Amino acid sequence: MNYDQIFQSAQEAFLHFKNVSGKDKATFLRRIADGLEAEKHTLIPLASEESNLPEGRITGELGRTAGQIRLFAKLLEEGSWVEAVIDHADPERTPAPKPDLRRFLTPLGPVVVFGASNFPLAFSTAGGDTASALASGCPVIYKAHPAHPETSKLVGQVISKAVIDSNLPLGVFTHVEGGIETGQKLIQHPLAKAVAFTGSFTGGKSLFDLANQRSEPIPVFAEMGSVNPIIAFKEKLGANIESLAKAFVGSLTLGAGQFCTNPGLIMVPSIHAEAFASAVKKELQEIAAAPMLHEGIAEAYYKSLSILESRKELKWVQVAAAKDLIKAYPALAKIKANDWLEDDHFQQEVFGSFALMVVYENFNELFAIAQRLHGQLTITLWGENGELAKKEDLINLLSEKCGRLLFKGAPTGVEVGHAMQHGGPYPSTTDSRFTSVGVHAIKRFVRPIAYQDMPQDLLPDALKEGNPLGIWRTVDGELVK
Amino acid sequence: MNYDQIFQSAQEAFLHFKNVSGKDKATFLRRIADGLEAEKHTLIPLASEESNLPEGRITGELGRTAGQIRLFAKLLEEGSWVEAVIDHADPERTPAPKPDLRRFLTPLGPVVVFGASNFPLAFSTAGGDTASALASGCPVIYKAHPAHPETSKLVGQVISKAVIDSNLPLGVFTHVEGGIETGQKLIQHPLAKAVAFTGSFTGGKSLFDLANQRSEPIPVFAEMGSVNPIIAFKEKLGANIESLAKAFVGSLTLGAGQFCTNPGLIMVPSIHAEAFASAVKKELQEIAAAPMLHEGIAEAYYKSLSILESRKELKWVQVAAAKDLIKAYPALAKIKANDWLEDDHFQQEVFGSFALMVVYENFNELFAIAQRLHGQLTITLWGENGELAKKEDLINLLSEKCGRLLFKGAPTGVEVGHAMQHGGPYPSTTDSRFTSVGVHAIKRFVRPIAYQDMPQDLLPDALKEGNPLGIWRTVDGELVK
Q1: Do B8 and B130 share a domain, yes or no?
Q2: Of A109, A388, A399, which has the smallest distance from its Cβ to B455's Cβ?
Q3: Are residues B140 and B216 in the same domain?
Q4: Active-site positions of A?
Q5: Measured CA angle at A340 (ends A337, A344), to 5 deg
Q6: Residue pairs between chains A and B whose CB atoms are closer than 8 Å
Q7: Same domain, yes or no, for B366 and B469?
Q8: How many domains does chain A have?
Q9: What span, in angstroms and rounded, lies between the C-alpha atoms of B297 and B330?
């Protein structure tokens, strides 16, 4: 593979693409979304076959993928996302005249995107990372995930067709196939300016280290998953044992447990532990084992379970009914809070439909657990308003441990919108300051630039005096349109 | 030193301080600014003595320091900087009800700040890094710069007094004295969540590497300086040789050249090279050599000059009149563009009042120089509007190489306001996506958090339904107040 050629083409495309208007970039993005939907009769069975995910789920994922691309198109058409700021000159100021300063967000340059096996569409070739990078004005070099090569290729063709139809340089999007070494080479190329990744901790951390060892370090946005603890309080749980067991099992086993927001840890007060465990067991027994993404993932799932089965601290509420080559049989074990606190291994993610139920005796134990928790994408609290009201310190502490704090339902199901934060403290991601879902995902691929005393006709439209784009701007400290 | 105690106290303070209202944090910041001004009769001579910078300069720096603290106070009082976003629930949505999601910016935790020797006030103990970290709600552990220990101690006392007067926990600010090892220990502590540094590339890069080698990597905002190229075009330079030479020499020798925005590189068209060099020489000879910050810096300055003096590619317009133990005698050398392009050493920063004049023959040479340039804090273009108009490709390329692009004047003099970007592509900083000057500096120390279906009375005021703070918020995709 000629990496220099790939990146020189991307860099050349970048110097043009960064200046394409929001409206034109939006048209380009809509072409991708339309193209995906036009291919749905081929794409849905193909992605389903390659991922073992049911067609219904892939249909929903295709809708989500097209939807999030169109959300970025809308953001670009509106235009205010560039955060334009203007401080006017004051030639009379003493002791020194004040210059005219104008600042906005400008794209970083070619971005390397790695797809995720568990979302063959929404977090893959035309997924959120690609959509947000393209929206920002960055060309994308996409490293296809080997778990769904044909799906990736087809989606890549849809994007490349949209590039051509939009009269953009071909280097705006490059589809690259290959293994780990290919990914490493892409990250190490001097013209790569950022990396987006969704996958395992081991994978994400190795890319992060590689990027920081470059002679020019570059940012890596690795979304590496977490155990997404649910904390159940006495009153709420006591009054809703069956319905909460149902909600929990639904979230735990959704997509064979292969979600980064899958709840792999649940804290339950001892008084209701037995009743809740029984209710969960009953629900679990009604769940048919579903095929996992590929045999390697199934093997890893059962290997993780075997390691846990050797731990005497665990009591098994439900053992995996079988250790299948491809299907995930759900499993659930109980552990006392005291034992859980002894070993960080008990908060390691098991990718699949396994959860650990931590039985706590009192608030002090729960607080100790909260203090011990690693960074998480999400934490969910199940409590009546009355019992939550007295737990401000706990909620305050838990806010430090996650990117999203839920007070209802289950953590799976990540809304694509303006207020979503999908990203949390390390090790759930490599950078808690950004989100990989929702409109703010675009902020990962930009940096501010300031122009001082730039002649009006050279200024980008977003910064011109008359506000020709009609966007929100901060002018002399005031937000105006 | 008991590092655990320092950080446990900071962490405890953090869990309180993060929830202090913007108004109360503003009052705290104003107390610091007032306190600095109240101490000015002690502080100005002290800082001047310790830094060798004239009292006039320190007086201005004190005003700037207090001014930027008050700018953050104003930002907090207004309150919209937290970027509140609300997406309302839709229980009727199919196939799944839409939850209520609310997102805003929350502080990261204890921040380690390193002061700069060249700004004993504005980039030191109560400088921009400390001010923006405290404004965000992060406690600061300040590692005093050994070049101005007494100034640092006194300013530290002013901050600690403001902490007490504001009834804040003492751990909100800690003043730490020590050497390199102390700084390393601070960065390595598990409770440290971010680092801010202003200084040399070597210093900043080593902190960056250390922070990334932690078991939990943390962000490092290292502002490491650059050569801040000025590019002069034919018509503009030809018509203004004397005045531009004066502006250039003024900027080059300001503060004995000890500014991160000091112009150490100037590109001049060959047709005017001789005339401009003569004019610069004349100006330089009128500049009295000024004492540098300390002997170590003077020694490094003359050592860098000696290395350059051995390079046969350079022609010296002005050699340093003497190699003093403390004073910086300015120097200027010429080099042909062809030779400059051969060796990246020619764009390494010489900290002090030395500049390299690169003589270019034509636009192609200039474009090649631009392509070769490392990341810079600033780039300055001196051109008539007519000659700039034809150089869009060059300007587009130069935008990729800097954080601030100027079209008038000189790069020294960094405005503190809303539109400033002080930070550029690597190696000028470790993170081009943030600024260390101006209100946006606060963004370095925060991350977004989303609350899903949180009961109203538990929500922070910024996210409550009635908008009790009266701030700008994005509600269901629309910016409203």
Answers
A1: yes
A2: A388
A3: yes
A4: 223, 260
A5: 150
A6: 203
A7: no
A8: 2
A9: 14
In-domain check, residue A82: yes
Predicted-complex ipTM score = 0.97
A281: in domain: yes
Q: Do A418 and B474 touch (CB under 8 A)?
A: yes
Judgement on whether residues B210 and B260 belong to the same structural domain of the protein? no
Supply φ then ψ for residue B155, to 5 degrees: -65, -40
Contacts of B206 (CB under 8 A, 6+ apart): none
For the stretch A20-73, pLDDT in tens is: 999 999 999 999 999 999 999 999 999 999 999 999 999 999 999 999 999 999
- To the query of whether residue B223 is one of the catalytic residues in this protein, the response is yes
Distances (CA, A) of B330 to A263, B254, B264, B285, B335: 65, 11, 11, 9, 17
User: For A388, which of B426, B449, B458 is closest by C-beta distance?
Assistant: B458
Chain A CB within 8 Å of residue B454 CB:
yes
User: Residues A162-183: pLDDT tens digits?
Assistant: 999 999 999 999 999 999 999 9
**Residues in Cβ contact with A109 at an 8 Å cutoff, skipping those fewer than 6 apart:** A11, A14, A138, A139, A191, A192, A193, A194, B400
Question: By residue range, what is the domain housing residue A379?
Answer: 230-406
Q: What is the CATH number of the domain that holds A239?
A: 3.40.309.10
**Nearest one of A20, A15, A17 to B400, comparing CA atoms:** A15
Residue A234 and residue A187 share a domain:
no
For residues B149 and B216, membership in a common domain is answered with yes
Residue A475: which H helix or E strand, with range? strand A473-475
Note if the pTM is more than 0.80. yes
Q: Does a structural domain hold residue B89?
A: yes
Residue with tokens 């503003």: B26
Choose the closest CB to A430 out of B95, B217, B431: B217
Distance from the A446 Cα atom to the nearest Cα atom in chain B, whole angstroms: 7
Do A134 and A236 fall into the same domain? no
Shared domain for B251 and B183, answered yes or no, is: no
Report whether A198 contacts A223 (CB < 8 A): yes
Q: CB burial class (10 A; 0-12, 13-18, 19+) of residue B431? A: buried
CB contact under 8 A, A450 and B419: yes
**Domain presence at residue B422:** no
